[in-house]
Design goal:
Four copies of one chain form a homotetramer. The first copy, chain A, is of the alpha+beta class. In chain A, 33% of the residues lie in helices and 13% in strands. Chain A has nine helices and 13 strands. A four-stranded mixed sheet of chain A has the order 11-10-9-12. Chains in contact: A-B, A-D, B-C, C-D.
Amino acid sequence: MTLSLKKQFHNTRNAFVEKCKPLQVEDYSVQPVDFVSPPKWHLAHTTWFFEQFVLVPHMPEYSCFDKDFAFLFNSYYEAVGERVMRANRGLMTRPSVAKVFEYRAHVDEHMLRFLDSDVVLEVQSIIALGLKHEQQHLELFQYDIKYILGHQPTFPHLYQDENLKDVSTSVEFLKIEQGLYDIGYNANGFCFDNELGYHKVWLEEFQIANQLVSNKSYLKFIEAGGYNKSEYWHAEGWDFINEFNIKCPMYWHQIDGVWFQYTLKGLQKLNLNKPVIHISFYEAWAYCEWSGQRLPTEFEWEVASFDFNWGEAWEWTNSAYLPYPNYKKEEGAIGEYNGKFMVNQMVLRGASVATFEEHSRPSYRNFFHPQLRWMYSGIRPIKKHE
Amino acid sequence: MTLSLKKQFHNTRNAFVEKCKPLQVEDYSVQPVDFVSPPKWHLAHTTWFFEQFVLVPHMPEYSCFDKDFAFLFNSYYEAVGERVMRANRGLMTRPSVAKVFEYRAHVDEHMLRFLDSDVVLEVQSIIALGLKHEQQHLELFQYDIKYILGHQPTFPHLYQDENLKDVSTSVEFLKIEQGLYDIGYNANGFCFDNELGYHKVWLEEFQIANQLVSNKSYLKFIEAGGYNKSEYWHAEGWDFINEFNIKCPMYWHQIDGVWFQYTLKGLQKLNLNKPVIHISFYEAWAYCEWSGQRLPTEFEWEVASFDFNWGEAWEWTNSAYLPYPNYKKEEGAIGEYNGKFMVNQMVLRGASVATFEEHSRPSYRNFFHPQLRWMYSGIRPIKKHE
Amino acid sequence: MTLSLKKQFHNTRNAFVEKCKPLQVEDYSVQPVDFVSPPKWHLAHTTWFFEQFVLVPHMPEYSCFDKDFAFLFNSYYEAVGERVMRANRGLMTRPSVAKVFEYRAHVDEHMLRFLDSDVVLEVQSIIALGLKHEQQHLELFQYDIKYILGHQPTFPHLYQDENLKDVSTSVEFLKIEQGLYDIGYNANGFCFDNELGYHKVWLEEFQIANQLVSNKSYLKFIEAGGYNKSEYWHAEGWDFINEFNIKCPMYWHQIDGVWFQYTLKGLQKLNLNKPVIHISFYEAWAYCEWSGQRLPTEFEWEVASFDFNWGEAWEWTNSAYLPYPNYKKEEGAIGEYNGKFMVNQMVLRGASVATFEEHSRPSYRNFFHPQLRWMYSGIRPIKKHE
Amino acid sequence: MTLSLKKQFHNTRNAFVEKCKPLQVEDYSVQPVDFVSPPKWHLAHTTWFFEQFVLVPHMPEYSCFDKDFAFLFNSYYEAVGERVMRANRGLMTRPSVAKVFEYRAHVDEHMLRFLDSDVVLEVQSIIALGLKHEQQHLELFQYDIKYILGHQPTFPHLYQDENLKDVSTSVEFLKIEQGLYDIGYNANGFCFDNELGYHKVWLEEFQIANQLVSNKSYLKFIEAGGYNKSEYWHAEGWDFINEFNIKCPMYWHQIDGVWFQYTLKGLQKLNLNKPVIHISFYEAWAYCEWSGQRLPTEFEWEVASFDFNWGEAWEWTNSAYLPYPNYKKEEGAIGEYNGKFMVNQMVLRGASVATFEEHSRPSYRNFFHPQLRWMYSGIRPIKKHE
């Protein structure tokens, strides 16, 4: 297994560097809003994880690349010491991007050497976690890059395409019977602590759409005045869209009456057959209210997911992000990974076009604050009972 | 039943006026923070409910007391038209308090006359809802009065006592077996729409405390440095207590090394045998983390509540406020009552010393944002599995 | 002179109480914005001045009415100790208005007794300053009352009228020759420290209007798009009117195409022949830019003021509030009266309809931040040289 | 003169490029606070000035380098059209730094060709203004670079030194007689419009220091508790230093009891013999209050400046930035240069070590908001009369 871990390490770390190739040096250091991190920071922070939790404690001959980096690139682990305030990350012009790539190379070289040695199981787990952590950041990195470039007045073109598949023009609904179902991760591979606590949940019968809502359907909601009628919205959702003057999904632009959408390929005419993405929980919920449907709970989603295709966009559920019965957080800094975020966020299930291959499973619990929209998020409705 | 409704109307409306007696005119109009409403506003808004939803549509000969009042005292019903921004309520010096009491008398007189007539069932329901609405405001009114007076530099004395009972020095834990339980309201009396959708929930075995956490126990948490160790807190809870420099429950004051607590009777020495109250969800959760326990879910609470005493303080659960399966919101303005708040709030169960008699039942779902502390809120822990 | 000081004391203190008569208790305690103080606070603070600076140090048998009041009603004298934050004054419901009037009566009684004794000259000066201080607050009190009531949705009627005189339909310009002029107070009566430092200023020839700009003229500026053209505005003025969406003077309301103005008599049709009032420095300056004129400096105003009528509204000058040559601030708390405000404010000269009789002279220097508009402020232009 | 203008053009433009050499690409794009502009922006904006005001209107064969740049790099000229909000400049990752240098080269090449032709006087004036504009930005550029690097956790070293001269250990005071003096620019060279309006000012006798206040003297003020005593401060200054927890000049750091100062050479031990710099107007004023002195007016400074050395640091005066008598702003966009900033700012006189050679004269009026400290600003006191 050490061999295979080494291979995984190599693949994940390379994938990140590969994704950076179309960027310019200037793109790496900005932070346009709080929830976006500068790309440079992702590159360094994921590297710091391996240095801090693997090399420093477990490879005696390792010496830190730069002792300041622990301070500069710790994201949120309070237990590990002082850290740069999230909102100030975009002001760090030093170290340079080149230096950060050197840092990656330095840590990678030592990690690969370390992986050649006899790694105890406990450290293998930390490395596996570090890779999953890096894969998560690789996905966030894509959201952030899209946000940074999509908010340039010049709408630059970066990659070839975002590769979302067309949805069918006719949606079907899958019926799931009522009953007591098993929820959570119950196999031998990797999973996060928040998926553990395999447990039973009773579900009433429900019927769930076999595909995501399309841009075409969502546009009908807009054209029906959906953003102007308080009756479809949570009170806080209504305040949110009014405060920020939100009238459509993020990256949509109506220019001389024609709808466009910013993609990583540049500004494109809106393709009505693609799933609607870049919407907040509030918008997903309001769309369902308008269309007489509702969002699934995360348990309904997990149970039904064996019967439909998913993986294009994270699917908002109407479940708050909370611990499963018997949830246990890990000891020490690693224990800060998930549990301390279990308030004020909603669960999304599935995966997206930006998700690293193999970084998805039906029990995977993603979560975001209900107003966020810069990730690839979509809607899969459930029929309401009459 | 019309007769009994009239009696209920009389009792509830009078209880409010009775509670006002110790106030001074100046106490009625201020709004020290967003979540507190001026007492005058509660008096008028609850009256407006009956005028707007009963007298205007159903009593043809009724003429409005003052046409401006609909604008001034609508709280949040978007469907009913423009309203004064919540944050500006504390600036309304006119109408005077005396005028608001006239308004109450005017509406009461017409309501009592109306209740002598033959009231159709649908309108009876609205009146019953209006009374429950008023009872809720009567409770909020007490929180707000306490906040307003408890933040005067002079700590005025208002009522005789808040009447919380002592907790026992030895807590016991009640064991509930795993199984499929029924949740929600399933009888013929009044309940809110958020309790409907009677449904099954599977619970694992758990052991729940037979009483609330005492000031004495909570003080140990403080003295153990609980407010200074990030490991016990949600990330957002940690930010919250640091931003507002929170070091103890609301209304606690340490003066020359001695702990005091503001009560409606004035500033008192902290009584260690009373339940700890005026804490946020974040504090309740952190206390449990520190003591190796956890908060119940609202379902665990509801199932277990038949076996312990409750009613002193609202009990924080670790359940987010979300709709039950098959939740249906009412048509029109009344439908804005509950559903649109089902995001970003946590459920509290039970009742408090400020709750109107008969305004409580095991299925009752109260809810507040996790940082709020000005209500009577407490902690009932569950043992963690080893 | 002690006798006459007693008479002055009596007159000023009574004038304040007289002005309170049309208020309701509720009007006294609110603070809608930072720059408005609750009326109750004015009543107590002016009283505290005499208690703190006269009775406590100079009348041995005097005992304080309430020892908390020093903390509650100190406005800004850092040297005198802790004080309630300005922005929290509107939350003090206790002491009651009735108690504050008792406080006034208590202090007045002792002051009058004190004034019957042999008062040394130095203390006479402090009392005289206290009366001027009270007269200033009496004027601010009127601005604040107008703001509080003018921002009620119901526009209440309070006094009979604000008594501004009509301006003539044809303005004349008075020519003042260039030369070296004397500026500042140079007689034996009372003046503030900021008027001392009698000194010479060289002025170029100028021509100044013999009356204030009328509502009619100002309306032309509005109708010419004055609020939409950046070229007339200071950069910070332009930002200010855009941030707060300002399109006309404070208290003007355009209802169905007709202009109204809130006055202390209630909402009135705009009278075109009255001087324009309730404008910021930015608006005064922009009006002048638009009309090809300019504002006077405070020195030009002082020199020319002997030749025109003034006293309707404070007249914005283009002078910043700065010390005169050889300005000396007093020792101790009294020294905080003026000097520490000499930055970021503009000078206004003259007096207004709210100014206490005898509280005005040509050398009087009033000052406000350039964005403020709730005082009676107007415009007297100077011709620009071609 | 066209020849000499070409030479000036060449020198100024090259000086900017020269100053950029030690920067890394990452340093160019950040904007840590509102008042700092990203270095890239300075480079492009100064170039845009020549393109917009010279090449586009006066060189028929010229075609714009990129039509988006007018939008991206207009700073504040409302008359010239839409512009990127000041606070968003730090988010522009595109165009790249390399592209901006291409833009400079493109415009320089055309400007030099244009300067070879017969340039009419009016356009010569605009070019001269453009060069002075560029020299101002070159100075701001140095402040901004220092701010960006001085706020990196790693305190990078950039240039050799900032070259401030030692002050003498014994200060002398120069006496200036009272009298009527001439103020403003009255020669044939270049000056800004704010220096015109040559006019007389009467001054009382005064005595002004022959050198700037040293770090040593300023440290005494700190050690005497100057930052903790409200009596030395303007009310707004006191609020400012408390809100931002300011205890010393910008770039001073006390580490283990020893004072250091960040300079462009890196973190250095504080040199007590250098003039104190990087202080706000509030600090300059408070220092004078503490030491029983005062700041000069800008007129006193201008009259006395012929008798002392200056040019190390801009010297705060106690004069607000206001128009001289008969000040006339230019027509069109150029007219936005100075006049619209004449409110809420204080005048500084002299020049600093970052000022371009030849960009200084005794009549030069620099101006900043009173709280700003990131420029090279110092203190030259005047004795107070006894």
